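Chapter review: from sequence to fold.
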Amino acid sequence: MSAKRLRSRVFQALVLPLLAVLMTVGGCGLTITRIQTAADKPSNVAVYFKVEDAKGEPVGGMTAEQFEIYEDDELVSVYESKQTILNPEVAASHYTLLLVDMSGSVADSEDFPKISEAATLFTSQVEKNNQVAIYAFDGSAEIHKITDFTGSAGGAQARANSLSGFKPQDPSTNLNGAIVQGLEVLDAGLEKAENPLRIGTLVVFTDGTDRASRVPESEMLDAVNGTPYEVFAIGLGAELSEKDLQQIGKSGTALAKDSSEIQTAFETIGKRIEQLTQSYYLLSYCSPARAGSHTVTVKGKHTPEGKKKETTGALETEFDAEGFDKGCDPNTKPKFDITKGDMAADDSGGKTKGKAKASASTN
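The token string follows.
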């Protein structure tokens, strides 16, 4: 394997509690990264994975017909396997926390109505595929809950308007401390998620740099770079530079130079999160195997919009068919075991969190 390809795999791999080796095989244009595999009686096999193009951009909207399944290098008939793409929500929980700067320079500015409206529209957009929470920060030591993670569509959006009535307790800006706390709130929310596979995103909106100096910048950057979650940053105004934002938004940034660009900036990040969510797939099928261990290869093919050339990619994983028999229904919800493989507990004996992280960029 070339050094270039090895670096690409490491960069695009999902960061899970135990960084086990993800089995991905070569392709042309697509990178398909396995997150978890489940095998259950009577003969159900399910593979949860993420698809990206050659530039690391998420690829959504693929159908079961765009994937071929091989067991031990032999093509499994689609009629025999009954392969299908299940709703990924039955296997994974996607949580997004929107952290909004409500320091004096924002809350008391003439731009605030546009910021509040953009945050509400953003929540509506992201909430289609994610549970969303909204927190505000000012110069105070603690961030302020506007709305917690909701399990029903429209729940967070309905309460996002509460931002308009928020009054800062301290007009300064505790940006560094807010980001550290935001990641902790996201972590705590995902601990309560119903599904074993848990994917988190933090979105930070601010119009300036940290002023309160409650938390060192180095501590904030360590938290951002060390988290397995996506972190996006939306900036407003001349005080922030792209470099400032990129230190926070390791997964992507959007900078609004003035109030006329606020909504577009929020929409850019909202679309990115939507694309990322849709790039996760849960492929389920009925295996013809009835005993022994087997290697599964999933091959995908995709023609990018506006292109004629088809791109391909593949992944490999394994399962044990001991006790397999007839009677399989591929629509059965898989039972992912988070005590094994990529989802195992960490070496320190800490509680399994089942987190996944995927890299991305927004320009």
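Two observations follow directly from the output. Residues 1-26, 340-363 have pLDDT under 50 and may be disordered. DSSP finds nine helices and 16 strands in the chain.
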